Amino acid sequence: MHFQLDDEVQAFRKAVRAHLEETLTAELEERLYRSGVAHDDDFARGLVARDLLAPDRRPLEWQLLQDELMYADAPVYLSETTRMVAGVIDKTGSPELKQRIIPKAMAAELTIALGFTEPECGSDVAAARTRAVRSGDEWIINGSKMFTTNGHIADYVFLLARTNPEKPKHKGLTMFLVPLDSPGVEAQAVWTLSGERTNITFYSDVRVSDVYRIGEVDGGWAVLGLALQDEHSSGWGPHLARLLDHAEHWARDTTDPSGTARICDTDVRRRLSRIAIELEVATLLQRRCVWMTEQGQTPVAEGPMSKLFSTEALVRAAQDVNEMVGPDALRSRLEPTAVEQGRFEYLMRFSLGTTIYAGTSEVQRNIIAQRGLGLPR
């Protein structure tokens, strides 16, 4: 097992970086930061034009693309959820639904948000109470979903609903693709600690054709598992890399009262070294998942290990950097005197949410314990 990058992969990464430098303008970054919405239609279409939305490349190149997008803080969250759901539809959707959704999704002509979590259920997704009742060739949906990020601008939501309350909670669920312009759908803004806009969405007698059902009736948990496997294998090391780069830049350009560069301070070097070590571990854990995929294996426990370690390392590093920089680190991006464009303050807030996204740290530890170590529930 080795993770060296050959010339072809290096060239691909260089091309991705050049595209991001060209398209991620200061004006776009400012607008995204102020709106809290990580999506831009023109940017998404630009990825399609460069064959970077869902390129047919080997797993390592695919991972490097994800790394570069994450490092640049590119507005791809809605594009990623769209791609993920399109992949699920390709595996389990009806021929009609595949024809209707997949080509447009891959051309950035439609978008799909995720509708799993509910206000009263937290991380226990299987406890969903949103109901779907069959009415001829349609389903009538009532309920609500929490953290439906981009639900106010997406075309569809990938919705988990309970279709049989008499069955055990994991066996009475069905997945639907609900058009968000349907009568009875409402999205209300919810703002997170990081400044991101997410939503609580409400469904009141929403009628959905059976064409939009994904998978078997009451078989939604298996369909959802396809999506969650993708999410649970995420790695957040690129955010750690960006934080480290900003911290090193600050340490080299800032001096103490005696005029000595802060990079010469023993405590500063110790903190930077610790972040660099954890970044290396996070990168290796993610590359192991890529290697397993190349070998035809599924990183069932290794994916959660990557996600768990990288997000908690990001939290530790953000706290370390804020302590190292001191009060100046608390100046936000909108403050003209903020050091490193306010990245330290922002990443401190942002890091906390990463331990929740794509499954909380507690959920990840349970998966590792049960599926990796064979421990009982």
UniProtKB/TrEMBL annotation:
Segment forming the signal sequence: none
Membrane spanning residue stretches: none
Domain of life: Bacteria
Coiled-coil zones: none
Stretches assigned to the Acyl-CoA oxidase/dehydrogenase middle domain: 113-200
PANTHER family from the UniProt entry: ACYL-COA DEHYDROGENASE, ACYL-COA DEHYDROGENASE FADE34
Protein name: Acyl-CoA dehydrogenase domain-containing protein
